[in-house]
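[job 0412] stage=complex_fold ligand=flavin mononucleotide status=START
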Amino acid sequence: MTNKPLILGISGASGLIYAVRAIKFLLEADYAIDLVASRAAYMVWQAENSIKMPPEPDEQELFWRERAGVEPVRGKLRCHRWSDVGATIASGSFSTMGMIIIPCSMSTVAKIAAGLSSDLLERAADVQLKEGRPLIVVPRETPFSLIHLRNLTSLAEAGARIVPAIPAWYHKPKTIEDLVDFVVARSFDQLGIDCIPIARWEGH
Ligand SMILES: Cc1cc2nc3c(=O)[nH]c(=O)nc-3n(C[C@H](O)[C@H](O)[C@H](O)COP(=O)(O)O)c2cc1C
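[job 0412] stage=complex_fold status=DONE, emitting structure tokens
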């Protein structure tokens, strides 16, 4: 395990449970996370969970830990405001092990593909690409338009790994968490992080 933090971006796509499960497993495995949720993620959180996500970074740590069911002593969690483009993770001089955007909206895909860096999440993603660090994108949309597919292709061409929020069924999922955890684990696989006890295919 590395001491470098992992950036977790949460954008305004449906399925914020993916982010909650990712936080849970990373903190339980004592990883350090720098977390940034986009402005739209607040709205989607409210729509999906009927409670507000606190905008203040200090309050957000407790919020995510409670949602993920992880005690304050496990791992490190630093939360950043979506608009804070002066945060550590906005600079390539801040060393990280890479970034996962989970779930990732088509808007964020488009803005990263165009190099806009219009908020901290996009800037942090832009930095991972320019520094040649891993960027894992977990897109959630259906169906994909040609524009979505072209933007995802641009990200793949720039070095990002695209891990769509598409679960498998061969591990015989019984709960929603089983389905979610499969996708989260496959996104972690791209970074060599193996901390989720999913059943893996072992052949016939
Ligand atoms: C309840 C809700 C669910 C949404 N789900 C998705 C989704 O699954 N995928 C997507 O690309 N956009 C989705 N959107 C739209 C995005 O939130 C919207 O495009 C927003 O501008 C994205 O901003 P961001 O990429 O900065 O987070 C959803 C919006 C709402 C309110």
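The chain has one domain: 6-189.
[job 0412] exit 0
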